[in-house]
Structure prediction request, 423 residues.
Amino acid sequence: MRNFVIKGNLCYSESVDAVRLLPESYLVVENGTCAGIFNELPEKYQVWPIEDFGDKLIIPGITDLHVHAPQFSFRGLGMDMELLDWLNTYTFPEESKYRDMEYAERAYDSFVKHLRRSATTRAAVFATIHVPATTMLMEKMEKSGLVSCIGKVNMNRNSPDYLCETSVEAALEDTERWICETKDRFGNTYPIVTPRFIPTCTDDLMHGLRKLVEKYKVPVQSHLSENYGEIAWVKELCPDSKCYGDAYDRYGLFGGDHKCIMAHCVHSCDEEMELMKKNGVYIAHSPLSNSNLASGVAPISKYLKNGLNVGLASDVAGGDSENMFLSIGHALRASKLRWRLLDQEVKPLTVDQAFYTATLGGGSFFGKVGSFENGYEFDAIVLDDSELDHPQELTLRARFERALYLSDDRQIAAKFVRGERLF
Prediction:
């Protein structure tokens, strides 16, 4: 890892509500971390290599806090269904194919190739129940240069026979062996315990997964309060729980002494919200998926106002694209519709807040990630917005906003992860 300096128009979150815009500035990168921003480069850094990106925009890399790698192959399909029907019609049949390693290799090659070219620099990823294919995905993600947590999915009830653990004992043995084989194997890729969600996991499986979290100090990811039918189902399965989040908490799989991501949280009640805040749970906001599957719109500005951890997610294939700029734009639009049509006490998201969730909000799950402040790991996307035509003069602020709404991988001129340039 080398020391170097980059120059360009720096744009990054100072806080939940404010973006800092620094035109034509120098950013010093030392051993993969940000070590200072300057209008004029101090003499001691002038001997370091300088990459001058001219008038381009430089933003922190984006974290996709919830994405299903095996679902990438059918993105854009079944979008006229709600969640539970969509899972049974598309998701489960497709995920069963990953017992075939040849198929898994073709499919995961496609997923990793697209993710590497996108604005995503870090991701929390669901695989399938199949250990060999999950390990293969980890190997491919490691070679990509991206940083990720990847989970072998666990599910042993209310699932089709062709996609169900053979027994609780086998599921836990497979998961433990996989954790042991992968937790120290890679530099940028880490295991994460992944019960699909409560309806597909028995009590004994959940308790067993908790023991693995305690033993190996690994994080957890799952789904929470996405859909009304799902919430009602969990209430039937866990009648003593105060809310969906409380059901996870009773299993010991809801943050507190371990990092935890819960995707969606569209319909979380106040009690669930307070429990997420208390336990430090990360909400993976998935606006494209929540719209496509008619789940609803999460009150993200309320969560942010109340100090919860919120990141942004594509949730492919519920979300139909890995392009996180689409997720930023849709988070903004959906929040406005929610405010106008449902609840005017919860304000729409601002551009600055949506950008925060995509960078610093979700990035903090991985540590000091998602900013250019001193000490943060240097993940960055360089955006060439010159082809986004406009007849008028634009301020840096206007260019920044347009780039968030209009960019895709064609605007990405360079990408850095942990100080290493991927392209």
